[in-house]
Amino acid sequence: MRQGDGRALPRVRSSSKRGANMIAFRSISIKYRLIGFGVFVLTTVLFIGSYSVIKLKQLSLNGIRMNASSEEVVNGLKSTRDIGELRRFTSEFLSTGSKGAYKKVILASKSLEDRIPQAQKPNLKAFLKDMELLSVRMESFWNNKRLVHEAEAQIVEGIKTVLKECRGDSVCIYTLQNALNGFKAYQSISSGLLEGAEEFDSNAVTKIVDAVTADLSKTRQNVQGPLAHALSQLENSFFDLDDAISTIVAIEKKVKSKREDVLKKLGLLDQAIMKSSISAGELASRLAKEGEQISSKAFVITVVIGCTSFTLLLAFGYLFYNSIITPLQKISAILEVMARGDLRNRIDIEGNDEFTEFSRNFNVFLNNISTLVGHVKGASDSVGREAKELSQMSDRMVYEANGAVEASQEAHNQIQEVAEYVHHTSTMVDNLAQATNEIANNTASTASLSESLEGQIQGTRNIIEKLSEHAKDIGDVIELIGSIAEQTNLLALNATIEAARAGEAGKGFSVVANEVKELAKQTADATDKISPIIVAIQKGVEESVASINESVSAVNVLKDSANTVASAVEQQTATYSEINEQVQIINERVQSVEEKVELLAKAAEENLAESRILKDRATVLKENSEELNVQISGLIV
């Protein structure tokens, strides 16, 4: 590829054989490369995933079985724990017979019922039934034990009461001594029963009770009163004690038989639960070994497939990576050179993928940028020249605007002088009128008054002539201001043309130039309005001069003929009135001219300000153009 001047453009080339080897691969579109890579990855993932799913399903089934087996093991362990607690609570109940221990046995049995095999549930129910019957008997057993203790307490109280009522009776004391000895003998042999001893001779207790009650009955028959009643109460207490002891012995025999049944059934439950737990543990161990074998085999196969797939993916990924990175490196090298301002490099066109299309379009873009930079350089130079000319033109406009301001100030000053002369003329005319009245009133002094009147008329004539000269000067100033307005209008038109040639950069100057043009137009309009007023003032001055000349003639006539004084005075009075009216008109027109001149001065000052703004913007445009030239000069095309 070459530039327009025929020079060959430098290129960024791939420096290795790798770039040449990648051309064939890059002939495939990136989109299709991505699709192929995605299909390959997806196929690999699906294959590995399918195999993994199959093995996971096998592991899942094995896990389900292991879970069930584990649950059985856990259930067996919990059952073992529960059977242990049941055994402990049962032993506690058999030892104490307390209701709290019995409730614990019931709760432990219910907890165990949900875990034991179905075949063992009848044994558990039989166990609970025996426990219920045993609970009733144990309750009766402990109630009778309580009755024994109560009877023993009553016997002790009865012995004390009888001893109190004996009152020294030897027979009574002897009987009471026998009763006390019998009670002591009972206590010596009944302690084993109350402490839960397995061997106990209830007949010995009965013999003691019979002997004591017989002796008490015999003594009671020989006494009366409170002593008889006390002996009777003591006798009944011994009978109650004998009944309670007999009941306890009978219950103890039944409880002992039922206790053996309960412990036997509890042992059978314990054996069944232990056997079930051992079976579940063996099954869980076997399933764990099978799961481990499946997992090991799946791991080995998955690793082999994964390594193979990873190798293929790595090779394909390496090709894909190079097909992307190599073009990007070339583009990056081009951009790096462009960042240094060199726009001459181009990218080699290789392959037929998206990067190839991008390289082609990027080269076209660089060509367009190079052309554009050349055009911008030319336009920048042109804008610089136009900005320089516009700056010079704005300097001339400022100079002309300053002249217009000075001219308008001079015109204002001259108009002030004219106004003063007009005022002075008005005063002189008033004096002439007074003198004329004096002439009319005193004709005797006509000659002297005529001379005085002639002098005053001559002074008025001189003032009117000066007024005429100033009116001509004002006309000259108005012509000068009109000429300046025309030149300003031409300069504004030239500035507008130059701003249009400057394009976008000259828009601000175009606005200022239009404003200057508008001010010049307003100045010309004001000049056109002032010119007729000045002409009218000049005409009034000429009429005033003519009137004054007539006054001079009249005065001369007055000198020649005193007889015509009256008519001359009347004519002169009329003339003075007309002169006064003309002077008033001149005064009004001078004031109007003064106002117009003030407006013209204000417009000239605004024109000067706008001209200075135009000059400043022209300076800024020139500086921007120079800065743009500096920036563009760093680009190589």
UniProtKB/TrEMBL annotation:
Keywords: Coiled coil, Membrane, Transducer, Transmembrane, Transmembrane helix. The chain crosses the membrane at residues 34-54, 298-321. Residues 386-615 form the Methyl-accepting transducer domain. Pfam families: HAMP, MCPsignal. It comes from the Bacteria. Signal peptide: none annotated. GO terms for cellular component: membrane. InterPro entries: HAMP_dom (IPR003660), MCPsignal_dom (IPR004089). Gene3D superfamilies: Methyl-accepting chemotaxis protein. Residues 322-374 form the HAMP domain. Residues 576-603 form a coiled coil. One of its GO terms (biological process) is signal transduction. The keyword Coiled coil applies. Belongs to the methyl-accepting chemotaxis (MCP) protein family. This is Methyl-accepting chemotaxis protein. It comes from Dissulfuribacter thermophilus.
